[in-house]
Fold:
Amino acid sequence: MGTVEINDLTKIYSGGGGGIVAVKDLDITIQDGEFLVLVGPSGCGKSTTLRCIAGLEEVTHGTIELDGVDVTHKRPVERGVAMVFQNYALYPHMSVRKNMSFGLKMTTDLSKAERHEKAEWAAELLGISELLDSQPKELSGGQQQRVALGRALVRDPEIFLMDEPLSNLDAKLRAEMRTELQELQQDLGVTTIYVTHDQTEAMTMGDRIAVLDGGQLQQIGTPLKLYHKPQNQFVAGFIGSPSMNFLHVTARDGVLEHDHFSYEIPELVERDVEPGQDLVLGIRPEDIELASDGDDNSIPTTVSVVEPMGELSYVYIDIGDQTYTASVSGELVFDPGKPLDVLFPPERVHLFDPETGDAIKNRVVSEEVEAQQRSI
Structure:
């Protein structure tokens, strides 16, 4: 079993002005065998949360339970967890074999032969058996990462904790390692808590994603749920690349009024807003459509910059003095400085409260997507 219960977790670092609150009132339940990703900007509290689970940071308030046992004040070695760090933390004077088995030497009664047997098992699983007698300085970044993973694997932990383990790799290798990590976690069925600031990693790897900001949980759910039904403007802007476009509008006389256009409110939007209400309209780049002559609700823009990506292009469009992003087919050609009329399909529009950031309306999704969002 590898369930984790985080209850009312708060971590405050002492200092002037009452200290620095790194994590505040965090409540998360992680199921056995689940791959949970903690994501958010730098300083949001995700690594601090992971270190509290590992026992590397003392909790200020709250509790942490592993398999129903309160481990809040237990030493790291007593928690049944293994951690993979961002910088790999390999011993430079030890071979790969010794790096992977050294932790067992310090924390178990296994014989040298048994420790080496475990290291060889992990190396074979990770495809680095031929490197067991090599030194860390002889390895590439990806190979060093596998050694760090192997050192965690031999511990046979209940919980894997991973703190941005792929951030030091180049883009191609990072993508390859994402796939390998997912396959490894699925094969082993070990509960994994993975920290990253990269929302692409979060979307592609996690069974669920927990979005943190300012030390507080903003939303937790499946990748599709966070993408299509963000609870607030922060989650909407953080999840998705390129990020969601936001425009300030006001509801008046059946339209959403912007300084540079008016957007007629269909029934599915009108029932969610009040006359005179200030709103933030959100639309994802891929949901913006090109308008044809005579289309209702077309919005005049000017092409600013075009970034061809191959299959698609990112077209940066100006509305007034603000620039927004549209994702369109890579077969289309656009000239910077030229006018371009676009559409915001009503069923794909999000609306947020400009003061609280809370979602007032999310885009409409299909029944299939709804079912996937409820699957976990």
Q: What stands out?
A: Residues 171-188 form the longest helix (18 residues). Residues 4-234 form a domain with the Rossmann fold fold (CATH 3.40.50.300). The radius of gyration is 25 Å.
